Amino acid sequence: MSIVRKISESAVHRLSLYLRILEDLESEQRETVSSEEMSGRSATTAAQVRKDLSLFGSFGKRGWGYDVADLAGRLRKILGLDRQWRVALVGAGRIGSALVEYGGFGERGYDVVAIFDSDASKVGEKWGGLRVRDIGEFEEVASEQSVEIVILAIPVEAVPSVMEHVDRAGVRGILNFAPTKLKVPEGVAVKDVNMVMELEALSFALSQEDGER
Amino acid sequence: MSIVRKISESAVHRLSLYLRILEDLESEQRETVSSEEMSGRSATTAAQVRKDLSLFGSFGKRGWGYDVADLAGRLRKILGLDRQWRVALVGAGRIGSALVEYGGFGERGYDVVAIFDSDASKVGEKWGGLRVRDIGEFEEVASEQSVEIVILAIPVEAVPSVMEHVDRAGVRGILNFAPTKLKVPEGVAVKDVNMVMELEALSFALSQEDGER
DNA sequence: GCCGCCTTGTGAAAATCTTCACAATATTAG
DNA sequence: CTAATATTGTGAAGATTTTCACAAGGCGGC
Ligand SMILES: NC(=O)c1ccc[n+]([C@@H]2O[C@H](COP(=O)([O-])OP(=O)(O)OC[C@H]3O[C@@H](n4cnc5c(N)ncnc54)[C@H](O)[C@@H]3O)[C@@H](O)[C@H]2O)c1
Ligand SMILES: NC(=O)c1ccc[n+]([C@@H]2O[C@H](COP(=O)([O-])OP(=O)(O)OC[C@H]3O[C@@H](n4cnc5c(N)ncnc54)[C@H](O)[C@@H]3O)[C@@H](O)[C@H]2O)c1
Q: Is the dihedral of CA A148, A151, A154, A159 positive or negative?
C-alpha cells in the first residue's frame, strides 16, 4: 500500500525545525498552533508548513489549527524518533568527545552504545560509562550491540580502512564529519556534517555583498 | 557593472565541494580535469558542474578541460578564500574547544582572533595563544580586532543576551551551533550547523526504508 | 590547412519546489 | 439553526533548479 513519495532534503529539514518549534510551544503550555504561527517562528510561509505536513497526512482541524502535542508526536514518528537508535562513535577525538558528552542526542533517542578508536593510548579509557574499544573489534561489537548508525569522527586518511569494518558490520546509516565523500554499499544512508563548508558559504555571502558595492 | 545573480544555497555548497576535489587533484599532481571527472568525484553530473561554474565565468578550454590550479584559485576567490577573515569564538565549551584546536579553519583563512565566555572559571585561561575573555568585553575587543565573523557555540538560553553584544559590535556573519533561529539585524548573514537535524534526517531515511518493506 | 576528436558553455526542456488562492469545513456567537 | 469567522488542505500557477543535447571551439595528427 505505502505510496513511495520522494520527500526532498529540505522538506525533511523543515520537519525537524517544526518539531523543535512544537517542543518550544509545548513548554509554553500551548495547546494549539496555526500554520501561520509556525511559519512566523521558522523561516518559511504558512503555505509551506501546510504543504509539508500534508505530505504525510492531514493533522489539523480547519478553523482551529493543529494540536501541539499531537502534531509533535506525529512528527517524531515521521522522523523515526518514536524508537531508540543504537549508535556507535568511531573516533574518540575532539569532535567525538564533544558529541559524547553532549546530552542532546540521548534525549532524542540516539543511544551511543560503543566507542572506537585506533590510538592505543585512548583504547581502554572510560568515556561516560563506556570503554573505548579498539577499531579492530568493530564488527564483533557492532553486531553484538545491534548498531545501526555510526558517527564517523576520524581524519580523512583513516576513512578507507575504517569503512571496511563499517561496511562489513551491516550498518544502515552514517553521520560523517570527515570532509570526504564516503563510498558506501547500496542502501546505506550517509549525512555529512561539514563546518568548513558552512563557513565558506558565509564568506561567499559576505564577499558577494562586498562585490556589489 | 556587477550583475546581481542569485546563487542558490546548493550551488554554493557544490562550489565548496569542487574546491575540495581540486585540492585533492592538486596533491595528485594533476594538471587538468574535465567536468566529467569532477562529477565522478562528487555526487553530481558533468552538466551540473559546468552550469555551476558558468554562473561565474568560463574557466575551461573546449576539448581540454579545466586547469586544476587555475580553477582552484578562481573558486577560492569566488568563495572569499583569497583573504583572511577575522573570527571570534563565543562559547569556550566542548564544541568551541574542538573548533579552536582544529587546524582546518586557519588553513582556509579563518583566523580566530578572540575567544569569549561568561564562565568566570574559564575567563583568563590560555587557549592556543589566546586568552579567554569575558563576554562583557565583546564589543570593545571585537571592534578593536575588526572581527567580521562570530562562531556561536553557546547554550540556547544564552543566545538572547549574547546576541545583544554581537549585534552592537557590527559583526557581518555568524556560524551558529545553538539549535535556535537567530534574530539578526538586516544584512547579517547566518549559517546554522545543526547536528541533531542531520541525525534526524538519517533516522527519517532509515524509517522510510523500514516502512516501505 | 584540414579532419577528427574531445570537452566546454549554454539555450531549451524537464523536473522539482514554492507560492497562491480558494473551496471545504470546524467552531463559536447569536 | 444560521451567520460570521478562522484556518486547513490542495489543485494550479509560478519560480527555480537540474538535465539534456548540441553548436562552438581548441588541439593534435597528418
Ligand atoms: N575538530 C573540529 O572542529 C573539526 C571541524 C571540521 C571537521 N572536522 C573533521 O572531523 C574529523 C575528526 O576531527 P577531530 O578534530 O575530532 O580529530 P582528532 O584528531 O581530534 O580525532 C580523531 C580521532 O580519530 C582516531 N583515529 C584515527 N585513525 C583511526 C582509525 N583508523 N580508527 C579509529 N579511530 C581512528 C584518532 O586516534 C583520534 O582520536 C576529521 O575528519 C576532521 O577533519 C573536525
Ligand atoms: N557538543 C555537541 O556535540 C553539540 C551538538 C549539537 C549542538 N550543540 C550545541 O552547541 C552549543 C554549544 O554546545 P557545547 O556542547 O559546546 O556546550 P558547553 O556547555 O560545553 O559550552 C558552552 C559554553 O558557553 C559558555 N556560555 C554560557 N553562557 C554564555 C554567555 N552568556 N556568554 C558567553 N559564553 C557563555 C559556557 O560557559 C560554556 O563554556 C549548544 O547550543 C549546543 O546545543 C552541541
A: positive
